[in-house]
Specification:
Layout: H1 2-33, H2 39-56, H3 59-66, E1 69-71, H4 78-91, E2 97-101, E3 108-114, E4 117-123, H5 124-129, H6 132-147, H7 150-174, H8 178-182, H9 190-231, H10 234-246, H11 275-280, H12 287-298
Parallel strand pairs: 2-4
Antiparallel strand pairs: 1-2, 3-4
Length: 309
């Protein structure tokens, strides 16, 4: 279990480094094409920093509002409230705010900028079909996202993707500048730079999305492992994932922007030419693989994913 956590953390850092290097590359090419030199890198960093700063303080409230989440009253949802309270003590973090989404689709997510400003939202559909151990598994998964600052990381990833979209847009606009089209002062290298810039301008948004999705999938594996470690009972989360996967409801409040936050992709029936291609653009790893890894962690504790009541 510890090896799984360490491996996922290494992959996460490699993805983040790749993200930053990609932005710097865009800034460098933009600077060369517009004859701004290394100032293009400065522009790229300023855009990324400004977007990160402005979204840092407001993203959680926006997400909760868009998701139609309402504060969970302790008297109305005592089991949920007590589960979150107990696991936050076990995780050693402040108790996050608890929200409920009135929707029959079983799902949950965590948001916020740090453990002191975090929230967990679950659907009424999840509360209706989960037993105590399964609910603990789901909450422990979301608690791991909070304790490991995934909630902040997800926001940063979305912002970095937005920065890459802006930079690629600037690159495309630069092709309409007369001076750039003539390549004045860069005879010989001009056509090559233009081709590189054109390729980056077209492919950068796609590449950025692929990086963000890869990061999201990796963090789900890590949260599964840490959640299982928190409850000391991996079959609970594995059984919860089986129930969620078997449910056919579509979460109405979810959309493309918030889908990666949920424990399981709420947008059922993702399209794709082939299953492999669809998985490449998925916000979550295959649920069968997640369950398999949790079963391996169980070490025969509950064969077949059976959960004690």
């Amino acid at each position: 279990m510890y090896e799984e956590i360490a491996r996922n953390r290494r992959v996460t850092w490699l993805i983040i480094i790749g993200f930053v290097l990609f932005i710097l590359l865009l800034g460098y090419v933009f600077g060369i094409l517009t004859r701004l030199g290394y100032f293009g890198i400065v522009i790229a960093l300023v855009i990324a920093f400004f977007m990160s700063f402005t979204s840092y303080y407001y993203s959680d409230q926006i997400i909760l509002t868009v998701s139609r989440a309402q504060p969970a009253e302790k008297d109305k949802y005592p089991n949920l409230y007590n589960t979150v309270e107990g696991l936050s003590i076990a995780a050693g973090i402040p108790m996050p705010k608890v929200y409920v989404i009135d929707d029959p689709a079983p799902n949950a997510f965590a948001t916020g900028r740090d453990p002191e400003h975090a929230a967990i939202a679950v659907t009424t559909g999840l509360l209706n079909i989960m037993n105590r151990l399964e609910l603990e598994g789901v909450i422990a998964h979301e608690m791991s996202h909070i304790a490991d600052y995934d909630i902040r990381l997800s926001t940063i990833a979305v912002v970095l993707v937005g920065a890459i979209f802006i930079l690629s847009g600037l690159l495309r606009q630069s092709f309409f500048w007369g001076e750039l089209r003539r390549g004045r002062g860069r005879e010989g290298l001009g056509p090559i730079l233009l081709i590189i810039g054109l390729i980056l301008a077209i492919l950068a948004p796609v590449a950025a999305q692929l990086i963000r999705l890869a990061l999201s999938r990796n963090r789900e594996y890590l949260a599964d492992a840490q959640g299982a470690m928190l409850t000391r009972y991996p079959p609970g989360l594995a059984s919860a994932l089986r129930k969620i996967a078997a449910d056919k409801h579509v979460l109405r409040a979810a959309n493309e922007a918030t889908a990666n936050l949920y424990i399981v992709n709420p947008l059922k029936g993702e399209s794709g030419i082939t299953k492999r291609f669809s998985e490449l653009f998925s916000t979550h790893p295959p649920i069968e693989e997640r369950i398999r890894r949790l079963d391996e962690m169980s070490l025969g504790e509950a064969p077949g994913g059976q959960v004690m009541q």
